[in-house]
Amino acid sequence: MSVHIPPQSPSETSEVTCIPADNPPPKRTPPTVHYSWRNFHPNAKLHYIRDVEAANTHIASLQGPVGFDLEWKPTFTKATAENPVALVQLANADTTLLIQVSAMQEFPSNLRDFLESPDFVKAGVAIQYDVKKLYKDYGVSTRNCVDLSLFARSVDNDRWKGKYSSPLGLARLVETYENLLLPKGRITRSNWEDELNTQQIEYAGNDAHAGFVIYERLAAMALSMEKIPKPAYYSFDAVRGRLCEPSGMHWMSYNPDYDPGPPPPPKPPKPPTARDIRRAAAASTFSTISSPSGTLVMATSARYSEHQTIIPQQSFSSQAGSHIALSSSEIQSPPQPYPTRGRRFTSPPNRGAMHSTYSARTLSISGASAHSNVTHGHQNPHPESTPDHSWRGRGDASSRHRHGRGWYRRSDSQVQDPS
User: Fold this and answer.
1) Distance between CA 396 and CA 388 in Å, rounded?
2) Peptide bond between residue 262 and the one before it cis (omega within 30 degrees of 0)
3) For 22, 168, 173, 339, which has the most beta carbons within 10 A of its beta carbon?
4) Residue 239 parent element (H or E)
């Protein structure tokens, strides 16, 4: 791929200086003057074209490199498909062409040949998506494209740090290298399919011309480098909507000579919100079971009752009939009840203290299986009036009762606290 780097006169070359990495460039005052293509090339002409024949006539005499950009009518709803390309912008030192293809019956043939020619550079900022969209809408490939963001990072690495593929806006490049303002604003979201007004024409002309000016400046900086970066680091072809090199191999933004600099400092953690606190309170708790065979750590999923606030103690019963006392810190339940399927784990009205049930996973203690589905609650002032809410392991089919999400068997006696 051939990328045109124009020759520079001694006076023009003297303006480009390479600043060592240990001496960063001094900060300049923010610019106050707006960018205008007339200030750079007073004798240049701008043509706004809505006719196919006029477009073919002007493009026949157009030479590269050119600044390149596209505009289309925006959509403001997610469900609406994106509108096709409406305006093609091309600019060099002598001519700026604004070709409104949405107003034409067919795509200009000379414009198609110019875009598909590898002899002319088309320079713009982050134009990878633009050239893909151009092929999707009109079936036009674009060759010898230059991403000015990658070009700037390749030839001015001391100034630009960070990820190599991170885009640098055209307005930022104009402010950095020309000390001028390139305003964007709401006009970028205007209707580019209707006949353009004066503000739209001025903006579109400056946008394409600024791409040409920045490319000329970066090309001059590349000439002053000891090791000129390879064009494949910042230029590509878009053939049938696919980004590739001239050889046909897949292209990606990569420069092995680029120094991204030190990584950015990590962002401070955000303080927890009230929703995070409620979720943490309802999350799984970890309990430790002590037995003669050893210590096990078990995660239990809590199902809370509306009236349950604190669970001071937990008791487990195994199939072997032995009881394992568990002493743990008090567990505070969330203010809202935990959602469950089926009926809640509460006692009937006026029948004693409310209870909540913890459904525990199968435990393995010295090779013996212990299914624990146990009851926890406040101390009941009337234990004789409290129905049995302790549940043991799975029994035979005749003694199973439907409860919650599984089949369980009622125990024959109330589980007693061994302590």
Assistant:
1) 19
2) no
3) 173
4) strand 235-239
| Nearest Cα residue to 208 out of 130, 271, 151, 286 | 130
Task: Give one DSSP letter per residue of 8-27, joined into a string.
Answer: --HHHHTT--PPPTTSPPPP
Question: Quick check: 331 pLDDT over 50?
Answer: no
Per residue in 41-53, pLDDT (tens digit) is 999 999 999 999 9
Q: Is the dihedral of CA 399, 403, 406, 409 positive or negative?
A: negative
Report the distance separating Cα 142 and Cα 65, nearest Å.
14
Could you count the other beta carbons within 10 Å of the beta carbon of residue 248? 10
pLDDT of residue 105: 93
How confident is the model over 166-178, as pLDDT tens digits?
A: 989 999 999 999 9
Q: What is the mean pLDDT of residues 89-104?
A: 96
* C-alpha–C-alpha distance, residues 181 and 149, integer Å: 18
pLDDT at 182: 93
Split at pLDDT 50, 70, 90, the class of 157 is very high
**Ordered structural domains, the chain, with CATH:** 10-244 (3.30.420.10), 278-378+401-409 (no CATH)
pTM: 0.61
C-alpha 243, offset from chain centre: 22
What are the DSSP calls for 270-335, one per residue? PPPPHHHHHHHHTS-EEEEEEETTEEEEEEEEE---TT--EE--EEEE-TTS-EEEE----EEPPS
The answer to whether 57 and 108 have CB atoms below 8 angstroms apart is no
Q: CA torsion angle for 241, 242, 246, 252 (degrees, to 10)?
A: 140
Query: Per-residue pLDDT tens for 203-243?
Result: 999 999 999 999 999 999 999 999 999 999 999 999 999 99
Q: Are 150 and 253 in contact (CB under 8 A)?
A: yes
Q: Which is more confidently placed, 303 or 250?
A: 250
Instruction: Report the pLDDT value the prediction gives residue 84, as an integer from 0 to 100.
Output: 95
Distances (CA, A) of 9 to 12, 14, 65: 5, 9, 18
CA distance 353 to 232: 77
